[in-house]
Every structure is written in C-alpha cells, then in structure tokens.
Amino acid sequence: MSITQVAFILISAITLGSALAMVTSRTVFVAALWMVAAFVGVAALYILLEAGFLAAIQLLIYAGGIAVLILFAIMLTPRVMQPMEGLSRFNDQWMFVAAVSAFLFAGLWALAIRTDWPVNLQRVTGDNIFLLGRGFMTQYLLPFEVTSILLLVALVGAIVIARD
Amino acid sequence: MLANYAILAVFMVVAGLVPIGALATAWVIRPHKPNPVKSEIYECGIETVGEAWVQFKVQYYIYALVFVIFDVETAFLYPWAVAYNRLGVFALFEMSIFVAILLAGLLYAWRKGALEWV
Amino acid sequence: MQFIYDIGPRIVAITAQFLGQHFPAWAVQLILMIVSVATIAVFVLITFMFLTYLERKIIARMQDRIGPNRVGPLGLLQPVADAIKMMTKEDITPTVAHRAAYNIAPVLVVAPPLMAFAVIPFGKGMIAADLNIGILYAVAISSLGTLGLLMAGWSSRNKFSLIGAMRAVAQMVSYEVPMILSLMGVLMITGSLAMGQIVSKQAVPFIILQPVAFIIYFISSIAELNRTPFDIPEAESEIVAGYHTEYSGMKFAMFMMSEYVSVIVMAAVGTTVFLGGWRGPVLPSYIWFLLKIYVIIFVLMWFRGTLPRLRVDQLQGFAWKFCVPVALLNIFMSGIVIFLVPPNTTHPLVQVAAYAVGNIILAIVVLLLYRRPTARAAAAVSGA
Q1: Is residue C178 very low, low, confident or very high in pLDDT (cuts 50, 70, 90)?
Q2: CATH code, domain with A61
Q3: Residues A65, A151: contact at Cβ < 8 Å?
Q4: What is the span of the domain harbouring residue A49?
Q5: Is residue A121 part of a domain?
Q6: Which residues of A touch C131 (CB under 8 A)?
Q7: pLDDT digits (tens, 9 = 90+) for C75-92
Q8: Would you call B98 an interface residue with chain C, using a CB distance cutoff of 8 Å?
Q9: Which of A143, B9, C113, C337 is the most exposed place for a label (fewest CB within 10 A)?
C-alpha cells in the first residue's frame, strides 16, 4: 500500500463525504460550502494524477469563481437563507429509489471489475504546460476558438437575462 | 514530481494548525460570561429589524459572472503565454482572435450598462 | 564567509546528513519538510506582528504624530501587547449565528495566505516547493480567500456583515482578472510558470521591461487586499466593520492576520515577478529579498496614509473599464515585442530598448483611448 494509494483513498473519502454532506444538508448555504470542499478534493485528485496545471485551474475557476457565483446567487434569494425546518430528507418513494440505486451500483461495479482498462504507461515527457499551449495553437485550434464564442454567448446571455 | 506536492500537504496541515492553535490558546485563556444582551446582533445599537438578507442587487451576480468568464479566459491564456516564446507570431494572431471575441463581450456589457454599480 | 550566502541549503544538507544516520530516508524527508514549513510559518508570523507595529508607526509619522512608543523600547513590544489583548478578550458569539460556519470562517480566511508561501523563493535555493505551476498556484490559493469572507459574512446573521462580505468579495473578484492578466506579460518572457525560473530569467528586472504590468499588478493587489484606497469593505464610517462586525477576540485577530499575511504574500509575489526576487550584487540573497519586500510594503503603507477612499462604483468601474483592457493591451504589446526581439537570444540592453519603445507606444495608445473620460473628469474637477 504505497503512500500514493493511501493519499488517494483519503482524498476520495473526503471528496465523496463532502458530496454526500452537500446533498443531505438542510441549509442551502451549507450545502454550497460542502460543494466547495468537494471541488478542493477533486483538485487534490488532479494533483495525484500529476496534472498540476489542471488542479490549479480547478481551484482558480471552480473554488474561486463558480463557488462564489453560486454563493452569491444563494445569498441574493431571501427565502433560502434560513434552514428548511420541518422538511424531511426522505420522500415516500425512498425504498424503490434505494433498490434501483443498489442495482445500478452493482451493475457498474461488475462492469468496472471485468473491463480491461487500457492503462497508458507512457509518461508525458517535457513540460506539459508548454505542450498544452502548443496543442491549443496547432492541433486543437478550432475547439479553442469555438470556446471563445461559447464564453461570449454565455456572457451576453447572462447579461440579457439579468437586465430584465 | 509528486514529492514536490507532498510538502503542500504539510503546508496545509500547518496552515490549519496555526489558526486552530491560536484559537485554542485563546479559548483556554479568555473569560466566558455570556449575557443575552451581549449576544444580540449589532445594528447600530438598536433592535434588529427584519431578517438578515440583502435586497436583491443583480450587480453582485453580474460581477461574479463576468469574473468567471474572464477567469476561464485566463485559464486559456496561461498555457499560451508559457508556450508563446517557441511558437511564432501566428500564435499571437490566434490568441488575438480569442481575446478580441471576449473583449467584444466586455464592450457589450459596458454599453448595456451591466458594469455600472447602480 | 561563503556559507552566509547559501545558509539555507547548507543547513538543509547538514541536517539531512545528520538525520540520515539515525532515520530511514522517508522519515528524513518528512522531518525536513516539517522543519522547513515550521520555519516559514514562524518567519511569517513574526513578520506579521512586526508589520502591525510598522504600519502604525509609519502612518503616525505621516500624520505628524509619534505612534506607539510606550510598550518596550520605541514601542517595539506593542504587537506582543496586542496579541495578549486579543487572546484575553471575551469571544462574544451571537446567539443566532450559525455555529459551525461562524467558527470555521476565521480558519478558512487565514489558511490560504499561509499556504501561498510554499512557492515563494526566499533566497537562492530557498524555495519550499519549486512547483512547475508556481505562480498559478499562488494566484489560485489567493482566490480561495474569498470563500472564508463569504462564510464569515453569512454566518454572522447580521445585515451589515452580509453586505460587507458581498461587497468585499465583489471587489476582490473584480480585481483578480487584471492581476492575473498583468502577470501574463512576464510569463510570456519567461516561458515557464515556476517561480525559480522567473527569478533566474531576470537579469534585467521585469519592472523595467513591463512597467505597465507592474502598475496594474500593484493596483490590483491593493484592491485584493482591501486596503486603502480600496478599503470600502472595512471602512468603519461606512459599514461598521463589514464582514467581521460580529467577531471579537482571537477570531478578529485571525481576520487581521489574514490581511497582513496576504500583504506579505502580495509583496513577495510582486518582488519575485517584477523586482528580480532575491537577485542583487553584494548582500546575501535572502537579505535582498527582505529589502525588496519591505520596499513594496512601505509603499503600500504610504498609500494608506495618503490617499482617500474610492467609492464602490468608482473602484468597480476602474477595474473593468480600465485595468482589464489595459492589461490585455499590455499582453498584445508584449507579444509583438517578443516576436521581434526574442528574449533568450538578444542582449539585455537591446531588450530594454525594445520594451521601452513598446511601452511608450502602449502608453500613447492608452492615453488616446481614454482621452474622453479623462477630459470629462478633469473638467468636472476644475469646473464644478
């Protein structure tokens, strides 16, 4: 059991635990905070995969930007700022849902165990940030430019909606 | 390469222990005399009026949103800046197109008054 | 004599050798890591305490008074007195506050600036973790600081705290974009995100090659730190005390600590990226680093003692309408100059000349672009 495996188990436990706490929390604000913890856990997982750049971008954009966005949206809505009292976390169909989830989980587990996952043992040589940059400019130029259009559409759309 | 990041875990632990240690020391040392008047929310010395929520000002949300858009743009700018030296001038053209499209978005937001703090 | 110059690596090597005889390799690594992190933490905390004293003294002198001079010689033990005061004050927690978030918020506000010190090069060979994403890590960790603020503001259940927290976060978030964009010019010249690389490529400090970027970075980091002239979130006359209204005692001290430690982080990153880090002729590397940090910190405190506060709409407008476009223009200018004068193969003086020409053209373009608003503002000041 190498130290990487221990770290992986620990970080996965924290991420999954935060996600679970997020969906079962009574207050929306606290749920958003658990979501941020899940984001940070995912960033740590990226570090374990030696994708340092991606981990930092995950922290910068998700935990630093999108989390703030969601928290602002929550704070600007008056009724959700209090904990939801008297609301049970279980609805009436919970037994059926639990059965279906267990079935799905068993199926996915069996699939995951039996598949021959192709493991790419080739390490990425060279500075991977430089390779990313070069990839954006040469091989993946079209998705790169289309992304800018996507961002523009998001920006304009949000402003149009917010101005009304 | 991962060993470089191991020290970050130590940093996180120490960075968490410093405030927790300070707070724990203070918790041992300080007095504790709660009093219902002391424990009320401060509102210029009078009773609080209404629930604690902020009037819906869409400005806050717009600033956070424009920030996320430009944050994603900087995420694309980082690898480009690192690779720029070895790529040649066509990289500048391509990135200029990218930035120009987003600048057009910023200009649109500016003209529509979305960046005003009303 | 030589050992004063690389005292850091020497101590590490000697300790590693000494411990290597008694412990296995992984334990030696771990102990060295813990010791270096603890040293950095102690250095940061002592600097933080000294900075509280320094700020009061400098602002006092600028306001023609003396400042703290009672506690200890020249008032140097004032921070100790402050620390004792903070520890022994009662922690008044509002009854309606959300317990968990209220207690965790101070920890979450202090932790990110402390973690940012992992990538700061304190001297030659004295960097805790020379990650290949060095400066991106510093920026990303700084952006996590906003969450602690939001937690503090919300959990206090106080209208002023909520408004103060949202304004502070809106301000910090607006100025993060110009800050990141201003660092891009430097990254283009360096070709790497690692802090060690950035310092080693500064035969000519980048402030000479990218003055506009330095100005934008400086202004943006003042806004990030919520310091004057951008300290609307903390201004006592405006909003009581903003997001830390309901905090007292040590928790309040944590907010103060986060602010001053962030000051040190910004000064350290600015030094590394623009002022040449630990490079310097005669003195040891870490002494140069400390001197440069204190120059930036002194200028920050100078601003606080001199400038009035900007209004909220003024500072937000300034960020999005001026800083972001100018930073983008700076990136474009750097791109052209780098293409014409590749940084690795040309003589430093040729580079300085090329960038000087580029920056002058950039300044002319910016002044031309903004001549209408500046004319209007000048007329408003002189006419009305």
Answers
A1: very high
A2: 1.20.120.1200
A3: no
A4: 1-83
A5: no
A6: 52
A7: 888 888 888 888 888 877
A8: no
A9: A143
**CATH code of the domain containing B51:** 1.20.58.1610
What is the number of structural domains in chain B? 1
B79 touches chain C (CB under 8 A): no
Chain A CB within 8 Å of residue B10 CB: no
Q: Residues of C numbered 193-232 whose beta carbons fall under 8 angstroms of chain B's beta carbons: which are they? A: 193
* Structural domain includes residue B84: yes
> Does any domain span residue A67?
yes
Number of domains in chain A: 2
User: Is A111 within the bounds of a domain?
Assistant: no
Instruction: Give per-residue pLDDT as tens, C14-26.
Output: 888 888 888 787 7
Which residue, of A68, A83, A98, is where some domain finishes?
A: A83
B117 in a structural domain? no
For C319, the 3-state DSSP assignment is helix
Mean pLDDT of C197-219: 90
DSSP assignment of B48-112 equals: --S-S-----HHHHHHHHHHHHHHHHHHHHHHHHHHHTTT-HHHHHHHHHHHHHHHHHHHHHHHT
Cis omega before residue B34 (within 30°)? no
ipTM: 0.88
Q: CA A59, CA A62: separation in Å to the nearest integer? A: 6
CB contact under 8 A, B82 and A130: yes
User: Does some domain include residue A69?
Assistant: yes
**The token pair that represents C228 in the structure block:** 């004057």
Instruction: Provide, as residue numbers in chain C, all residues whose Cβ is less than 8 Å from the Cβ of A57.
Output: 136, 140
Choice between A1 and C182, residue whose per-residue pLDDT is larger: C182
